[in-house]
Design a protein that fits this description.
about 425 residues, alpha/beta, 9-stranded mixed beta sheet, 8 helices, 19 strands, globular
Length: about 425
């Protein structure tokens, strides 16, 4: 039964789908997938706070309104300066309201690397093999909705033995003068022994409200290595629903660095990593600096299915004003996953007296020969340390920045790219200065 049907957006989406509007891309081989996915979405509707995984994250504020479902100016110019990282040499790929814009992108990357708008590859063998085979196996109704109605996104295929000489930066731009609902679908496939670094930046470039529902499926074949950054720097009129599903084969390495800063009013990140073979390694790192009445919710799943695998997860939240941060991390160790080494940690600093943190680190272990640990800490700003620094001639502003950097250090030191690390540290400083000036 539908558990939530009251939202304006829900009725709008049902009408669009059932009336057969926006049919571009509905042809086979997608037609059946889309229909099945939309039926799954209708069975549940949008998630509500009655669901355990959405207990502290209420979607009503972003779904009880009407949105444009298509970009009304698809060829508009946009400003991407906010996303640029000083000194970082990248191949830039730009998506505006979910649509890949070749005219704004570096269309030639390197030999053995294929970049396309996802709607242009729906008949290719790799698309058919992988699309909807991972994220759609979850119970997330927002994934089902995305599968049913996505119209844009990015396809990246890196052939075996290709090691990229520089980073790929994907710049997601929400740009609208009206309220718009963007649904973006990405598929990244790294063949055996491929190595890449992908930096995804989420920015806004206009005055209108945007709700952005993005689903990404990542496939790492044997011995593939991927460094993957999420940098969330949208403004207060942007809301983001991101679901990332990662499938890993033997000897592959996946590192995710997930960073959110003051701005976007509503952020929900689901990152699911499936270790489907032996000798697989995954690292998940996160920094969330929140302000005003912002909400940032990070949900992670690390699923150990085979033996001799390792995962390491460390998330830190710094909350200001009346903002809210949520961390819900779950590690599964299946019965066959003997010799697993898994670590999970969540630390929280509440700077704002009225800010809130909800945290739920979890382990479910079904194997008996494993090494697993998890933990959580919660605390406020250390006034004694602040006094110590100020007594030595350091301004309060500089002292606060130093203490927050020290708190975040356990995570930022893990960043593989020094230029991205420096960029993130500057964004932390800016976020603290703005809120405490």
């Amino acid at each position: 039964m539908i558990t939530q049907v009251s939202s304006s957006l829900y009725h709008q989406l049902v009408t669009v789908f059932e009336d057969g509007l926006a049919t571009k891309g509905r042809e086979e081989p997608l037609a059946t997938l889309r229909k099945e996915a939309f039926n799954r979405f209708k069975e549940t509707g949008f998630p509500t706070s009655k669901m355990e995984d959405w207990k502290y994250t209420n979607l009503q504020s972003v779904i009880n309104k009407q949105y444009l479902l298509h970009d009304n100016i698809p060829g508009k110019s946009v400003n991407i300066d906010k996303a640029l990282i000083k000194g970082l040499d990248t191949y830039q790929l730009v998506l505006v309201n979910g649509r890949y814009r070749e005219d704004l992108s570096d269309t030639i990357v390197e030999k053995g690397v294929y970049v396309k708008a996802i709607e242009k590859v729906v008949s290719t063998d790799l698309f058919v093999k992988h699309f909807g085979q991972y994220a759609d196996k979850t119970d997330n109704p927002l994934v089902a909705l995305n599968t049913a109605l996505f119209e844009g996104g990015l396809y990246i295929h890196i052939e075996k033995n290709i090691v990229l000489s520089k980073s790929i930066q994907i710049i997601h731009v929400a740009s609208t003068s009206e309220s718009i609902f963007n649904q973006t679908r990405n598929l990244f496939v790294l063949e055996a022994n491929a190595e890449a670094e992908i930096v995804e930046s989420f920015i806004t470039d206009d005055a209108g409200e945007s709700l952005n529902n993005t689903v990404s499926e990542l496939v790492l074949e044997e011995n593939a290595h991927l460094q993957h950054y999420y940098l969330q720097i949208g403004d207060s009129k942007a809301s983001y629903l991101n679901h990332t599903e990662v499938q890993q084969a033997k000897h592959s390495l996946y590192n995710n660095y997930n960073c959110s800063f003051p701005g976007a009013s509503f952020v929900r990140n689901n990152i699911h990593v499936r270790l489907n073979d032996s000798a697989v390694e995954s690292h998940l790192y996160g920094i969330a600096l929140t302000a005003q009445d912002q909400l940032v919710d990070n949900h992670t799943i690390v699923d150990h299915r085979m033996p001799h695998c390792e995962s390491y997860e460390w998330y830190k939240n710094i909350t200001q004003d009346t903002s809210t941060a949520v961390f819900n991390g779950k590690i599964f160790v299946r019965q066959d996953a003997q010799k697993t080494n898994a670590f999970q940690q969540n630390n929280n600093m509440l700077i704002g007296e009225k800010s809130t943190v909800y945290t739920k680190p979890q382990l479910e272990i079904f194997a008996d020969d494993v090494k697993c640990s998890h933990g959580c800490t919660m605390g406020q700003f250390d006034d004694d340390a602040l006094f110590y620094l100020r007594a030595r001639g350091i301004s309060e502003e500089s002292a606060r920045i130093l203490l927050v950097h020290a708190f975040a250090f356990d995570v930022t030191e893990k960043f593989n790219n020094e230029l991205v690390k420096g960029y993130v540290e500057r964004l932390i400083e800016q976020g603290l200065i703005v809120e405490n000036s």
